[in-house]
């Protein structure tokens, strides 16, 4: 099937992801899986309907790849620690020093999740997506250098401020670097909570100086937990914003959070989503469904809401439950547990994660 959207135009109404009309920014949409009783792009079983194609562009293959983290706004240390531990869990080696021995992490791990699917994608040189990440440097913009209300384009200006700051700054790393901008709960970003929970794209040299892949993810704990922290909080139309294991009036129950923070635990899966798509489609010319790079469906878009076997259509799938009822499917460093959506596996031609039952 050469163009799924032309054959099935009604699928457009069910897509959970949108792109920025002007900049073609690829975004994680806010629509929770429950809103659509059937999402044909969340396929946990093998499907030939998905025409995922390679469009000849590069993937992120540098090993290790340097992650540059920008904390925009006021962040507390516990929230930062959760996110930092997730990023450090992506590699088998210590994310602070890739030559260190691998930390002892129980399976299935975050590194298993990345290696079992994301690393299977290659570019035209047969180079696989990297399996090694280093948390190279962090930058704190607690002074809100561009205010508390950002446009999508101004996220690039946040990066420019981080790489030109004084006396501390991030390096410009166009060959080995990925930049991740995380906004605090009080920062409003264009389309956040209405259309997107996060997005990725690449910087414009006119703004930043060079072209580098970047992603933005917002903290939804105050603004829209039912939309962007699902399934740790329920959207109002089915549960009145109930969260953290509490039952709604219709007896639906949000999952308990594995790290005690609805907003940050919800961010983790969005961060994983955007990292996977940034690595497989960094310049919007590599791996995606369809022929139009302005409206692609990428490897994480295909599996929105699928966290375990049987997932899809509003059911997260078979996941683990902790002693206090917290839901998770992956283990990380420092004893952390995370709930992260599955990715499209190009070999199995289905959504897959290392916690699969078969």
Automatic annotation (TrEMBL):
Pfam families: Phi_1 (PF04674). It is found in: Secreted, Extracellular space, Apoplast. Keywords: Apoplast, Secreted, Signal. The keyword Signal applies. Residues 1-29 form the signal peptide. The keyword Signal applies. GO terms for cellular component: apoplast. Its main location: secreted. Belongs to the EXORDIUM family. This is Protein EXORDIUM-like 7. It comes from Ananas comosus (Pineapple). The gene is LOC109715696.
């Amino acid at each position: 099937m050469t163009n799924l959207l032309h054959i099935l135009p009604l699928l457009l109404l069910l897509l959970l992801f949108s792109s920025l009309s002007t900049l073609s920014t690829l975004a994680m949409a806010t629509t929770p899986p429950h809103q659509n009783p059937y999402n044909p792009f969340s396929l946990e079983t093998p499907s030939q309907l998905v025409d995922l194609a390679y469009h000849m562009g590069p993937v992120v293959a540098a090993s290790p790849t340097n992650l540059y983290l920008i904390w925009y706004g006021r962040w507390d240390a516990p929230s930062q620690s959760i996110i930092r531990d997730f990023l450090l869990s992506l590699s088998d080696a210590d994310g602070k020093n890739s030559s260190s021995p691998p930390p002892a992490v129980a399976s299935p791990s975050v590194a298993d999740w990345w290696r079992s699917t994301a690393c299977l994608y290659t570019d035209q040189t047969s180079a696989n997506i990297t399996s090694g990440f280093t948390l190279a440097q962090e930058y704190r913009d607690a002074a809100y250098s561009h205010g508390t209300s950002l446009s999508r384009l101004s996220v690039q200006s946040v990066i420019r401020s981080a790489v030109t700051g004084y006396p501390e700054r991030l390096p410009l790393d166009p060959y080995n670097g990925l930049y991740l901008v995380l906004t605090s709960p009080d920062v409003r970003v264009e389309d956040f909570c209405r259309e997107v929970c996060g997005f990725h794209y690449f910087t414009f040299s006119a703004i930043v100086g060079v072209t580098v892949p970047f992603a933005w993810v917002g903290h939804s704990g105050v603004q829209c937990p039912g939309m962007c922290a699902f399934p740790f909080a329920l959207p109002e139309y089915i549960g009145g914003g109930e969260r953290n294991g509490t039952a709604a009036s219709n007896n639906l129950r949000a999952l308990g959070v594995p790290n005690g923070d609805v907003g940050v635990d919800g961010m983790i899966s969005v961060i994983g989503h955007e990292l996977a798509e940034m690595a497989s489609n960094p310049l919007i010319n590599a791996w995606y469904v369809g022929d139009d790079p302005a409206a692609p469906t990428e490897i994480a878009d295909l599996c929105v809401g699928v966290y375990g076997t049987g997932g899809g259509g509003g059911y997260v799938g078979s996941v683990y439950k902790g002693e206090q009822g917290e839901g998770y499917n992956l283990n990380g460093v420092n004893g952390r547990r995370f709930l992260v959506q599955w990715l499209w596996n190009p070999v199995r031609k289905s959504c897959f994660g290392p916690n699969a039952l078969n």
